[in-house]
Please model this.
Amino acid sequence: MTPGQESWPGEPLEADEDDAVEEPKADAEPGEDTQEPEPEDEAPKEELPRLRGPADAHAPGELEIPDEIAVLEGTPNGSRRGVAIVAARFNVEIVNRLLASAFEELERVGVPREAVTVMPVPGAFELPLGAMALAKTRRYACVVALGCVIRGETPHFEYVASEAASGLQLAALETGVPVAFGVLTVESLEQAEARTGKGAEAVRSALEMADAFSQLRASAAQTAR
Model:
């Protein structure tokens, strides 16, 4: 500390650069070279193939199946029987856009409008009951369920979304008629607006499963002869 320099009580004094003494390393012996050894060259790491991330985790793709394996795969095209759509009126602005997307896809794959039946229901909670009733008639090759559930400030969202999903699956399992899940379960209206193409996706899924079931029945009947 230079003459006249003051320090606050409890404040450590700063040593002058000339007075600084480098303390020897605790583990170093007198005369021992303390220089760190140079790291050895590491072998180059083998690059692994890029894994799919969250952005493309649900993207569709092609399965790798050997040529010798029989494949039973449906295609989303027009069927001889009709297609039923059960649609919720709740959040109707979004559901109308889902319907428009579904109608456009049905027309694109060759399903005539007179072969399509729409059953409106109050909300997403009623979708499974409507789907079950339509499937049990055996008049339709498949059923497409369309609706929109947006998260609010209460647990209502979890109950409705869960019951809609499990109920629609139960309708398909009990009747053997494909039921496609075209219900948006989102956090906000903006997310719903960005996903209204789900209507077309649900149509393709339903028609593909219906075609696969038709092929399976035909194959089973031919084997039984």
